[in-house]
Amino acid sequence: MCGIAAFSGRFDRTALEQATLAIAHRGPDASGTYLSADAQVGLGHTRLSIVDLSALGAQPMASDDGTVVLTYNGEIYNHYQLRADLEARGHRFHGHSDTETLLHLYLEFGEAMLPRLNGIFAFALWDARDNGLLVARDGLGVKPLYFATGARGVAVSSEIKALLQLVPEARELDIAALHRYLTFLWCPGDGTPLKGVKKLNPGEALMVRGGRIERRWRWYQLPAFRAEATAMSEGDAIAGTASHLREAVRRQMMADVPVGAFLSGGLDSSAIVAFAREDQPGLHCFTIEMVNGQDEGQTDDLPYARRVAEHLDVKLDVVRVDAADMAADFEYMIGQLDEPLADPAPLNVLHISRLARASGIKVLLSGAGGDDLFTGYRRHRAVGLDPVMQWLPAGIRRGLEDVSSGLDQRRPLNRRATKFFNGAGESGNARLASYFRWAREDTLMQLYSPAFRAELGVTKAAQPMLDFLDDLPASTGPLEKMLTLEQRFFLADHNLLYTDKMSMAAGVEARVPFLDPDLMDFANSIPIGMKQRGREGKWVLKKAMEPLLPPEVIYRPKAGFGAPLRRWMRHELKGLVSDLLSRPSLASRGLFDPEAVQRLIAANDAGRVDASYTLLALLSIEIWCRTYLKDTGFRQAA
């Protein structure tokens, strides 16, 4: 697990070295750069040594004849199988790193190697034989990769902060992307806060030549929900879920360093630990205790985590974090994320990863993806009610949306009702996309400055998701569509992004066995009624884990991996809100209407609205702007 940077065009070594230095936290063990003979291609790398800790695993790594050079971030879990095949074809290896396997796989198959990979990765590979720079990202987007085209050529990197060392002029705000961050708290699609910087989408690749993008294509498709799934028996679904997850965990424990695990006490992380300890008894696990900081309606995870650790006989270390101390890390979090994600959950990953690293653990297994594969969120239950909702006339549905928004938001049940009816006036794919929405468009439009609204125009926040849904087979059902949105957008553009950035900020690699390609393919063949059975989400996964986990853990209430945000906004973060969202600050930036924002703060404090996440999004954007832009105006230029 590492950090990468690369360019094609008229750049220089100094900029490459600065870009590499900007992501040193991703690879604290070593670093290196490569510059082609004509100085038109450069590769940078910072190394977190996980597999083959010797110098034989160092990067950038060149072929024996020096014509192909690779900088790579990630893990190829099936690299031993791939290596055996390559050796049978005559390839000879110097070390045992997966980096070397990836390099030789390219030498044998070229870009056709991509579908052969089971792993998490982002890489840039320079082939001097045809002057091509191949750039690719793994199928689910577990590893981040950004790119930008500037006057001097094309640059790519694991993080925006490094990319701006190569393309410093790419600092114009993307208003459509900011609208998406405020609508969803994250940005679906390839947009970022900067117009000139894009995310390479999951399962995409670029071919760059002579400082220009020659081709961009999608090499991976999410496994389709198959019609023949209805023929699968319950017994086969339960047994297959257990065997595929066990194999995914076993495969992802590949490392030459100690492996540990996140353990929240929820079903997903507990399932990962249950299988991991079969290969590694006494597995070292980590969880968090939030001191002085529960919001009403939140569930305390710690007793469940301790119950699982006792049941499985694994070591559990608890990092105790005071709510005030955690809130103090919020500005640091936004800087490390590179994007203004308005979610306190990344701070949990950061604090656990710091404790793991201090304990000598470089790799943590995560339960991320379980909800997105097998259902588990409240919105998955809500989708089942949509046929009833759609039976009502559109006018009544819009009325329910309006009425629910006026409920007393100090009560958790009222907040959930408001969230459910948010978007009730929509239908079809637009209704499905609305489940991810945190703020109504009319509310946001009142917060935007005239300049913001003018540039935004008629942009639809959900457009990337709607375009994606339009390409799905007509036979895809509503809940299958929702899970596909989870897998393509919510994971890559939110959960996986913050899991990577926050763990790597502490020099720790996070792995996600639920997103193993073989497991995903099997899971999408399971009948949807065995995932969401009435109000019971993850039915098949729960049944699969009954022999291994206590029932009170398997069937516990769903809990989020978050922090007491509503309390924070009224207490621990109140000073930050008063400063960064003050009238002078907002007027200087020019993005938001100062008076409208002050009214929203007052209404939230009084409990008339539940705007904590919207205010956090405004706060995140202002922190991001102060971190990444050079002055305080509406538009920024280097």
Short description:
The protein is an alpha+beta fold and 638 residues long.
Low-pLDDT stretches: none
CATH topology of one domain: Glutamine Phosphoribosylpyrophosphate, subunit 1, domain 1
Integer average pLDDT: 91
Order of strands, widest sheet: 2-3-1-9-8-10
The percent range for strand residues is: 15-25%
Radius of gyration: 24 Å
| Main sheet properties | 6 strands, antiparallel
In CATH, what is the homologous superfamily of one domain? Answer: Aminohydrolase, N-terminal nucleophile (Ntn) domain
Describe the structure.
β2 and β3 form a beta hairpin. The chain is built from 29 helices and 17 strands. α2 packs across α3 (98-109) and α11 (345-358) packs across α21. The protein is globular, with a radius of gyration of 24 Å. Strands 2-3-1-9-8-10 form a six-stranded antiparallel beta sheet, covered by helices on one side. Strands 4-5-6-7-11-12 form a six-stranded antiparallel beta sheet, covered by helices on one side. By secondary structure, the protein is an alpha+beta fold. Among the domains are: 2-218, Aminohydrolase, N-terminal nucleophile (Ntn) domain (Glutamine Phosphoribosylpyrophosphate, subunit 1, domain 1, 4-Layer Sandwich); 227-375 and 495-554, HUPs (Rossmann fold, 3-Layer(aba) Sandwich). The two termini are 32 Å apart.
